[in-house]
Structure formats: structure tokens, C-alpha cells
Design goal:
The complex is a heterodimer of chains A (478) and B (99).
Chain A: E1 4-15, E2 52-53, H1 54-66, E3 70-71, E4 74-75, E5 78-81, E6 91-94, E7 101-110, E8 113-126, E9 130-134, E10 137-141, E11 148-154, H2 161-178, E12 190-200, E13 210-213, H3 218-237, E14 245-250, E15 255-258, E16 271-272, E17 279-280, H4 283-291, H5 297-308, H6 312-319, H7 322-332, H8 338-356, H9 367-378, H10 384-397, H11 401-408, H12 416-429, H13 431-438, H14 444-455, H15 462-477
Helix pairs in contact in A: 2-3, 5-6, 6-8, 7-8, 7-9, 9-10, 12-14, 12-15, 13-14, 14-15
Chain B: H1 6-15, H2 22-42, E1 63-64, H3 76-80, E2 86-87, E3 90-94
Antiparallel strand pairs in B: 2-3
Classes of the chains: A alpha+beta (478), B alpha+beta (99).
Chain lengths: 478, 99
């Protein structure tokens, strides 16, 4: 790889979280039956008048601000003309020479190294219909046609698959925090088309760009870039030439393939959209939008560290998942020991999700349930061992810890006399261990504790048991 | 002024998915060239200090609130009523990508 440097630029499309479409008020709801959310405007009938969704404009300006862009004081839409069946008007309303935002940046960090990825432009357009190809036919669902779509284009500042993945993670998180896009790549609400070429470091020459489509996850972006770097490398090393083309990603075979048939003439004949008046962004409106920017990932991380006493690692793990950060904050509002909450969420809660291959949204768990369990622990009603034992059920079934404990008879034994009785039983049964302890082998006490816990199924209060056990053993010494 | 060639007319026709007869190609090359000449005349005007104009009506920021409760979308039947071909509530066209 020494002779060549991968050069990657990224084009990201994000469907905005508005209720209604870009230029009509049809619903944007995902997953509705085909062609149930259309009207003459988003079906491209002649003579209709598109009216711009204000929220979509504000979401785009907000994103551009969060990406440190310059905001256009004057912008307008443009018609991008091309023939394709997913586009009933035969032009897409987009933006061309006057995008809402330009010249921004987003900082990434890969193996401890920080780097800015420059953002060339952020603009607003409308999504197209959805095509399904079966047999010798293509089927079109226009529900998606006209959904507000934000396009974010980077400069070619990305130099490895790792950087590409990190950039997308950061961008997706930012969009989620801003509340402008849900970031679901599997559902296509966030789509990414990287272009990649290999820069020849010896002769200082740029390579030929290849664009990759059909990437359904951030992982796939990394794999496709990895594959493409190797493919281009092999061609160049064999003295061949890279063809400028669009390639698709085959998720099963883990390889890219040339996408013939989608070779349209790239002659879009842009011109200003005459039906939609220009957008003028004055200082006041911009300030108003700026005020609506919520706390962003980096700020949240800082607050978790400085304000709540979490370690940098803990804070980072929490903030990279917005639902996890929300869960944490909700729990902290009901229970003061932030560190304890963080521990449970990071190791236990996430551990359970990983084992069950579930996302946070898929489990009926909430902050209340965690706080309830932590209080049971504090009151000494349950031991830590019991807490760990019942936690999966709390998480996966959303069941009250108190109820689980009651139903299963797992209340901690805090009655000293009851514990003393069990301690005496164990001392009687484990004469060898007792003997060793009395000879000065302190470690034997751990074994004895274990036996008591086994007998009580972990219900014996540990500190109380430990005290009683020591008392009883001291008694034997005399 | 460079004249529009017959090849360029064919290219534009292709972009618009229009199939033209030989006579039409001839006619449109001629007509489009006359339109271009009219614009060439306009280009003689001194416009150095004139801002580009994209919209002639003095309107700006015409927006709708993101609110759909009074909006009536079409039924699937209405939406598909003019489709040359339809199947399973979808518009249908000849397959447009290869495997």
C-alpha cells in the first residue's frame, strides 16, 4: 500500500424527520402500504404548485450550522433534469449553485489521531420513489417520492476505511442528536455513496474515481472500501487502468460489481426552479435556529465527565448511543449515584443486549426499573448477586425487580439469627476448611462464604454473613 | 455564433426521451438555432453590473408548516388511475436495471 494513498470522498443522503413531504403535505411515514401517501404534487402532475416545508429548511440550516458551515443568506432550488422511472416529473427539485450550507467540517478521531473532514456542501432536495426489480419488470412505489432529503458532500479528505466508518458514525450521531434524521441505514433513511481513488505518492498523480452504491450499513461501507482499494491496487500493479464507473456492493459475496444499466447521461441541465420563490436567511432566523440546536455529543460527554464524575471512557460509551445516553440521564434524575448507574448500563445492560442481539429500542426496559433495582440493593432487600441474576429478566421482559424478587422468594436474608443458624450448619459440614482456617489459612474463609451463599441461593446478606461467620470461627479458636 | 448541430439536437432529444423523425430533426435544428440567435441578440446587452435574476416575482420564503392533518392524499386507486401498467398497487415499467 506504500505507493498509493486511498482518497475517499463521501456523499451522504439523510431523510429528514419531518411529518410531511418536502413540497406537499403527504405523510412521510415509513413502511406504509405502497402508493398510499401520494398526491398530484409528489406524483409530478402538470400544473401543481409545490410549497416548501419550513421545517425541512430549518433542519438543513441547523445541520449546516452544527457542521460549521457558512449559511447562504440567499438560496434557491434548482431543477435537476433526468429521466428515470423513480422520478415522475423527470426532474428532481434540488439545489445547485446556491446550497444552504457550504465549507464546513466535522472532526473525527481514529486511533487517537484527530482530523477534520471538510464538508463541501449541505443542501436540500426531494427523495425519489422506491424501485423494486422483479423479472422483466420494475415496480414503483411513490410513497418516498418527495420526502425531504438532505445531501451532505465532503471533500476527499478521508484516507482509509476506518476513517470513512468513523466519519459516518460521527455524522450519524450528530444527525440523531439534532433530531433531524433517525440514521437507520438498513431502512434507507441514511444512505452513503463513497467515491474512491488511489493517489500515486511516487508520481503525485490522482487516480480515477469509482463511486460505490447500495451500502446498507456502516460496516458495509468499510468492507466495500477495503475491497475496492484492493481491487484497484491489483489493477494498477498489473499495469492496468481504472475505469471511471459506478459500482454496486454485493453484501452476500462481499464484492463490488459494475452497475450497468444505471449509466444515465450525466447531463442534468440544472436551472433555477421557477415555481418556488428563493429562500432568504436573515440573522434573526439563523439565530433562532441556532438556539434550537440541542446539546451535541461532545458537550454531553464533557458534562458527563465534569458534572457527573464519570470517566472519559464511561462518558464516551454512553454518548455514542443516544438512547443509552437518554436512559442514563433519566436514571440520574431519579437516583443520585451516577457512577453506579453508568456501571450497570455499560457492563450489565449492554452485555445483555449483546448476548440477545437486541437494540435498546427492542427491549421494554426503562430508567425507572433500573432505579427500582438499585434502591432494593441499597435497602439491603436483595444482594448484588441476586440483582445480577434477575437483571436479564428486568431488561428483556420489562418486569419490576420488586415483583421478580417477591415471586421467586429472593429477598435477602437479613435476619441475624437465621444467618447464624446457616453459618453453624456450614461450619459443621465443612470441617476441613474450618480446620485450615484455624491453622491460620485465612483464605479458607472465602470457601466457607461460598458454601453459605450456595445454601441460601445467594440470598444471605454478604456483610452480615461475613461478620457472623468470623464471630463463629473466633468462637472456635477459644 | 456557433450553430447547434444535428448531433446536439439528437442528444437533447435523447435526454428528453423523444424519438424524432429525420424531418423533425431537420426542422428542430433550424428552429432551435433561430431561438439561440434571438438569445445571442440579447447577450449583446451590457449586463456587467446586473445581478443574475432567478425569479421575476418579488416573493421570498414562501413556506408551509410541517402539518399534514388537513391534507388529503390520493387513494391508491386514484394514484394509479393513469398508470399505463400496474400490478399489486405499484406502477409498473419495463425492467430498468440488469442483474
Amino acid at each position: 500500500m506504500s505507493k498509493y494513498l486511498p482518497v475517499v470522498g463521501m456523499e451522504v443522503h439523510a431523510e429528514l424527520l419531518t411529518e410531511t413531504k418536502m413540497f406537499c403535505r403527504c405523510s412521510t411515514k415509513f413502511g406504509a402500504p405502497p402508493n398510499t401517501q401520494t398526491c398530484p404534487i409528489c406524483l409530478g402532475f402538470p400544473g401543481v404548485l409545490p410549497v416548501t416545508n419550513k421545517k425541512a429548511v430549518e433542519f438543513t440550516i441547523m445541520t449546516a450550522l452544527a457542521l460549521n458551515c457558512e449559511i447562504a443568506s440567499y438560496a434557491h432550488f434548482a431543477r435537476k433534469n433526468y429521466f428515470y422511472p423513480d422520478l415522475p416529473k423527470n426532474y428532481q427539485i434540488s439545489q445547485y449553485e446556491l446550497p444552504l450550507g457550504k465549507n464546513g467540517k466535522l472532526e473525527i478521531e481514529v486511533s487517537g489521531r484527530k482530523k477534520d473532514i471538510r464538508i463541501r456542501r449541505v443542501h436540500l432536495e426531494e427523495d425519489t420513489g422506491r424501485l423494486i426489480h422483479i423479472g422483466d419488470k420494475s415496480y414503483i412505489d411513490f410513497n418516498r417520492s418527495g420526502v425531504p432529503l438532505m445531501e451532505i458532500v465532503t471533500e476527499p479528505d478521508i484516507n482509509s476505511p476506518e476513517e470513512a466508518k468513523e466519519f459516518l458514525e460521527r455524522l450519524r450521531l450528530l444527525l440523531q442528536y439534532l433530531g433531524v434524521c433517525d440514521g437507520k441505514m438498513e431502512e434507507g433513511s441514511l444512505r452513503c455513496e463513497p467515491n474512491i481513488s488511489l493517489y500515486d505518492l511516487e508520481t503525485n498523480t490522482w487516480g480515477t474515481k469509482v463511486e460505490i452504491k447500495n451500502l446498507g450499513s456502516i460496516r458495509a461501507v468499510g468492507e466495500a472500501l477495503e475491497y475496492e482499494i484492493n481491487r484497484q491496487l491489483k489493477i494498477l500493479e498489473a499495469g492496468g487502468k481504472i475505469e471511471q464507473e459506478t459500482r454496486g456492493w454485493n453484501e452476500e459475496k462481499k464484492e463490488t460489481f459494475p452497475m450497468r444499466g444505471k449509466e444515465e447521461a450525466h447531463d442534468y441541465r440544472y436551472f433555477p426552479e421557477p415555481d418556488i420563490p428563493p429562500i432568504v436567511v436573515d440573522e434573526r432566523w439563523m439565530a433562532e435556529i441556532r438556539r434550537q440546536i440541542p446539546e451535541l455529543p461532545a458537550q454531553k460527554e464533557e458534562r458527563f465527565v465534569r458534572g457527573m464524575g464519570l470517566s472519559r471512557e464511561e462518558a464516551h460509551i454512553l454518548i455514542v448511543s443516544l438512547p443509552l445516553a437518554k436512559l442514563f440521564e433519566e436514571a440520574v434524575s431519579q437516583y443520585t449515584e451516577a457512577k453506579k448507574i453508568a456501571n450497570w448500563l455499560i457492563s450489565d445492560f449492554q452485555g445483555i443486549l449483546n448476548t440477545e442481539r437486541k437494540s435498546i429500542e427492542e427491549v421494554p426496559f426503562n430508567a425507572q426499573l433500573l432505579v427500582e433495582m438499585l434502591k432494593l440493593l441499597d435497602e439491603g432487600t436483595i444482594s448484588i448477586r441476586i440483582a445480577k441474576e434477575i437483571f436479564p429478566e428486568v431488561v428483556l421482559k420489562g418486569k419490576s425487580p420488586k415483583r421478580i424478587v417477591e415471586e421467586r422468594g429472593l429477598l435477602q436474608i437479613t435476619d441475624e439469627e437465621a444467618i447464624r443458624e446457616i453459618v453453624r450448619e456450614v461450619i459443621e459440614e465443612e470441617k476441613d476448611a474450618v480446620e485450615q482456617y484455624l491453622k491460620g489459612k485465612e483464605k479458607a474463609i472465602g470457601f466457607l462464604m461460598g458454601q453459605i451463599m450456595r445454601k441460601t441461593k445467594g440470598k444471605a446478606n454478604p456483610s452480615l454473613t461475613s461478620r457472623v461467620l468470623k464471630e463463629e470461627l473466633e468462637e472456635l479458636k477459644r | 455564433m456557433p450553430r447547434l448541430t444535428r448531433e446536439e439536437v439528437e442528444h437533447v432529444a435523447y435526454l428528453a426521451r423523444l424519438s424524432l423523425t429525420e424531418e423533425e430533426k431537420e426542422m428542430f435544428t433550424e428552429q432551435l438555432n433561430r431561438i439561440l440567435e434571438a438569445f445571442a441578440k440579447l447577450q449583446e446587452l451590457q449586463t456587467e453590473d446586473v445581478e443574475p435574476l432567478s425569479h421575476v416575482i418579488p416573493l421570498k420564503n414562501v413556506f408551509a408548516e410541517d402539518e399534514g392533518k388537513d391534507w388529503q392524499s390520493l387513494t391508491t386507486e386514484e394514484a394509479l388511475a393513469n398508470a399505463p401498467e400496474q400490478e399489486n398497487n405499484h406502477f409498473v415499467v419495463p425492467r430498468i436495471v440488469e442483474d
